[in-house]
Specification:
Length: 528
């Protein structure tokens, strides 16, 4: 599934000779040809594109150059091996030859689109968890301040009236720069975007120097791609240097944040929510219905009172990060507090601690690694009078090591653990569930009776059964898929939205009650 291609309404024509000089490419062919945009995939080519033929993990993009040219590509950017493939295919367009295509791609796309990031204020957020939430909080505050905003991340790309669901957290550079140019054409003045570690490693954000970058935290994820934690950290750390950022705000609640703050090569402001030494610390955090009220206090005594209208202790960190990033960009503290009003950071983030109902409380959350799952469960535990029930699974073909950890965390913090499927992708689902269940059954470190551990598949059935059987004072956490609307099983995309399934079960529950006033659901309330 891929999102529709968005380009600015009027595209600039750029001479390939100028572009080659800009990115240090050897130009083979007619220097007077023009390009007006850049594309990575032959199937998405429009006339006037520069087709970037990247040697991928599976195939060399040059294999598709002839088709791209048939669709109107006017030049090709590739490496020496790609240039040979392009010539052998008899393509007559000029070829820009570089050593590393991905390394030249961001600068090429930014140049072709007129360096759009340079005319906006740009915020980039990275870290294992909290990127989407923090960018939504930034976007909410910026709009309250009267800015015209653009948002790019896992859920969607959004500006003005345009909202397009995302396929990647951080798009490839040609798509990203096309988006940014379309935003500039629509008078967007401020961008908040998520920067995944994949995107840094794969040069997707080359061509952007962010005004302010933010770091949330680091925990186990994506080790299938990065190999080691050290490598994962080093990739994220690249964002905190002068080629990619002007200044940084780092949450130093974990050791990785503290290290990022020490090793950053741009001016850093630190934020702490849990007692670490920092420039800004969170004080007087008070949980209240639907959120937390808090005050940010600077070393020099400045105080910024605010509020976040999302459940979960970690959302205090996300709001604190967003707040300090705004201050570091030059926003005046009093103006920010006034613009946010008494509700504070009041963004609705699809699939992130999204509360669907009150009795039982059904919450959909994107927690899909052990760390996020633990934090989500712990924060819901404190506000659940009945049982805490979690429905979740682990993804196939991704970081297998996290499966037993997720099972263990669920067993430690929930009263009922319902293990089901997440996105199995090409892997058979039952063995994935078995690895999660093994972790749950082996879990230790819990006081009192152990949890009830169930295996229910498919996921829609697990959600239906769990919501129907929950007591009014229970909390049901549907974890792992958040806003997602398709589930890949055995290579086939099946429609599945946790929120749709849960709402259907809640409606069935209400209908059942209307037919039979005293229902067995209430019995669950007695369980402590
Ligand atoms: C590991 C990874 O990121 N891989 C990306 C990489 O794939 P690849 O190297 O295997 O490419 P390939 O299939 O060999 O193809 C090589 C080239 O031929 C082109 N091609 C290929 C086939 C064709 O018919 N026509 C064509 O033009 C491709 O566009 C590509 O440029 O280049 C592709 C083209 O842009 C990306 O789609 C692909 O992302 C895949 C889909 C992906 O799932 N990426 C995930 C892991 C990712 O990036 N995730 C992060 C965040 C994760 C998180 O924080 O949770 C993200 O930012 O989304
Ligand atoms: N600051 C945080 N610390 C730890 N966990 C968090 C934090 N913020 C959010 N989470 C948890 O992580 C999940 C993902 O949150 P969010 O989508 O904001 O992060 P993300 O970094 O964008 O993740 P991804 O890149 O996987 O989309 C949430 O559903 C929540 O459970």
């Amino acid at each position: 599934m891929s999102s529709p291609r968005i380009l600015p309404p009027a595209r600039r024509q750029v001479l390939v000779a100028d572009l080659a000089a800009h990115v240090g490419a050897r130009l083979d062919g007619d220097p007077s040809a023009n390009v007006a945009s850049v594309v990575l995939d032959n199937r998405r080519t429009v006339p006037g594109d520069l087709f970037a033929a990247v040697p991928g993990a599976r195939v060399h993009g040059a294999a598709f150059a002839d088709d791209a040219v048939r669709r109107g590509a006017t030049a090709v950017l590739t490496d020496a091996a790609g240039a040979q493939i392009v010539r052998d295919a008899g393509c007559a367009v000029p070829v820009l030859v570089v050593e590393d295509v991905r390394a030249a791609l961001g600068a090429s796309a930014a140049h072709v689109h007129g360096e759009p990031a340079e005319v906006m204020t740009t915020f980039g957020v990275t870290g294992t968890n909290g990127k989407t939430t923090t960018t939504f909080l930034l976007d909410h505050a910026l709009r309250a301040l009267g800015r015209r905003t653009g948002l790019v991340g896992t859920v969607e790309t959004r500006f003005g009236e345009t909202v397009v669901p995302s396929t990647l957290t951080t798009p490839e550079a040609p798509e990203l720069q096309g988006w940014l140019a379309a935003m500039v054409a629509d008078d967007v003045d401020t961008l908040a975007m998520e920067v995944s570690s994949h995107s840094i490693a794969m040069h997707r954000v080359d061509g952007i120097v962010f005004d302010v970058v933010g770091f949330t935290n680091l925990s186990q994820d994506h080790l299938d791609f990065h190999g080691t934690f050290e490598e994962y950290f080093a990739t994220k750390a690249e964002l905190f240097g002068p080629q990619r950022a002007r200044r940084a705000v780092v949450v130093v609640d974990d050791e990785w944040g503290a290290r990022m703050a020490r090793e950053a090569r741009v001016p850093v402001t630190t934020v702490a929510t849990a007692g670490a030494d920092a420039d800004w610390t969170v004080r007087d955090a008070e949980t209240e219905a639907g959120g937390t009220r808090l005050t940010l206090v600077h070393r020099d005594g400045r105080r910024v009172p605010t509020r976040v209208a999302l459940p979960g202790g970690f959302n205090v960190a996300n709001a604190a990060l967003a707040c300090v990033m705004l201050l570091e960009s030059g926003v005046d503290a009093d103006e920010l507090v006034a613009a946010l009003g008494p509700e504070g950071f009041d963004a609705r983030v699809p699939g992130r601690m999204e509360v669907l109902s009150d009795a039982p409380r059904v919450v959909v959350d994107f927690a899909h690694n052990a760390d996020a799952l633990e934090l989500a469960l712990r924060s819901l535990r404190t506000t659940t009078p009945g049982r805490l029930v979690v429905v979740f699974g682990a993804t196939g073909e991704r970081d297998r090591g996290k499966r037993p950890h997720m099972g263990a965390v669920a067993a430690r913090w929930a009263d009922v653990v319902v293990v089901t499927d997440d996105d199995p992708h090409g892997e058979p689902p039952a063995p994935i569930r078995a690895e999660v269940l093994a972790g749950a059954r082996a879990a230790t470190g819990r006081e009192g009776p152990g949890p009830e551990i169930l295996e229910v598949a498919p996921r829609a059935e697990a959600i239906r059964q769990t919501v129907l059987e929950a007591g009014d004072s229970d909390t049901v956490l549907l974890a792992g898929r958040g806003h997602e609307t398709v589930q890949e099983v055995d290579g086939v995309d099946l429609p599945l939205d946790d929120r749709v399934e849960a709402r259907a079960a809640l409606a069935a529950r209400t209908a059942g009650r209307e037919r039979t006033p005293a229902t067995p659901h209430d019995e669950g309330d007695t369980h402590a």
